[in-house]
Amino acid sequence: MAIFKKDKKEDSIDIKETIHAKKSVPSTSKAGEFEYVLTKPHITEKASMHAENNVYVFEVNKRANKAEVRSIVKELYKVEPIKINIVNLPAKRVLSRGIKGKKPGKKKALVYLKKGDTIEII
């Protein structure tokens, strides 16, 4: 019956450590952080009109916040953002050829820059 005589204190510590490890942001390297926060640039007709006014649109991770976006844009593109707006787009139900489906939601970040600062996306 030695199976049932495990030390319960050790088990509870291991569980807590694994929970904290799973919740933390994966930051193995700088490149990993960039990919975690900025998923990709959001290129649409409206986003290109915004780019003329020094506003750039990026798709970001669902858990990313303004501070993370600001620091990553600063490091990656070497520009100082004036303001950052975050927009949550909800998931949508769609119907195509009689088949019901669902489009995934996403999160966008609008990054405002000073006059003269630009970001080369393409």
Spatial gap, N to C terminus: 66 Å
Strand order of the largest sheet: 1-2-6-3
CATH architecture: 2-Layer Sandwich
Helix run count: 4
Task: Output the CATH topology.
Answer: Alpha-Beta Plaits
| CATH C-level | Alpha Beta
Share in β-strands: 25-35%
Shape: globular
The total of beta strands comes to 6
- Residue windows where pLDDT falls under 50 for at least 5 positions: 18-29
Largest sheet: 4 strands, antiparallel
Average predicted confidence as pLDDT = 81
Percentage of residues in helical conformation = 25-40%
State Rg: 21 Å
SSE sequence, one letter per element = HHEHEHEEEE
Judged by helices, strands and strand pairing, the structural class is alpha+beta
Structural domain tally:
1
Structural features, described:
The protein is of the alpha+beta class and 122 residues long. It has one domain (27-113): 2-Layer Sandwich (Alpha-Beta Plaits). 35% of the residues lie in helices and 30% in strands. The protein contains four helices and six strands. A four-stranded antiparallel β-sheet has the order 1-2-6-3, sandwiched between helices. Strands 4-5 form a two-stranded antiparallel sheet. A hairpin with a 2-residue loop joins strand 4 (92-96) and strand 5 (99-103). The longest helix has 16 residues, at 8-23. The model is unreliable at 18-29 (pLDDT under 50).
Annotate the secondary structure layout:
Elements: H1 8-23, H2 30-37, E1 38-41, H3 45-51, E2 55-60, H4 66-77, E3 81-89, E4 92-96, E5 99-103, E6 106-113
Antiparallel strand pairs: 1-2, 2-6, 3-6, 4-5
